[in-house]
Design brief:
mainly alpha, 6% strand, elongated
């Protein structure tokens, strides 16, 4: 899942929404409280969204939205990502974002392209 898709998925889960202008093909992002946070621009503009993959404060705010029943699965995903339990407290924002998306069922694995070296290696083996 690329970084832009991760950022948008978390933002939408946190209540951000993108709306289209009534009389043009421009879009703007609106915060969870309904305030417009961006100028009307292209649909791909995500500059105004919180930077969940690099900002620990932003991802911490998103983590705070997890329900009690989601905490243990979130920690299980985070543990698998950081590989050692004591490193969980030092997990980066991007590691936390991945664990959050996996907990929510929003994580999408990127498919291998036919030209990738892993695919070519698998073909030659067998």
């Amino acid at each position: 899942m690329n970084k832009e898709a991760q950022r948008v998925a978390i933002a939408e889960w946190c209540g951000w929404s993108q709306r289209k202008a009534k009389k043009s093909n421009h879009f703007a992002w609106f915060s969870p409280n309904g305030n417009r946070w961006s100028e009307w621009s292209s649909k791909d503009d995500i500059e105004t969204l919180p930077d969940y993959l690099n900002d620990l404060n932003a991802i911490h705010e998103a983590e705070g939205r997890l329900s009690d029943g989601q905490i243990v699965p979130y920690l299980d995903h985070l543990l698998k990502i950081v590989e050692l339990d004591w490193r969980m407290c030092r997990a980066s924002a991007s590691q936390r974002a991945e664990a959050l998306l996996k907990t929510l069922g929003l994580w999408k694995e990127e498919s291998l392209s036919p030209d990738s070296s892993e695919t070519k290696t698998n073909k030659t083996k067998g």
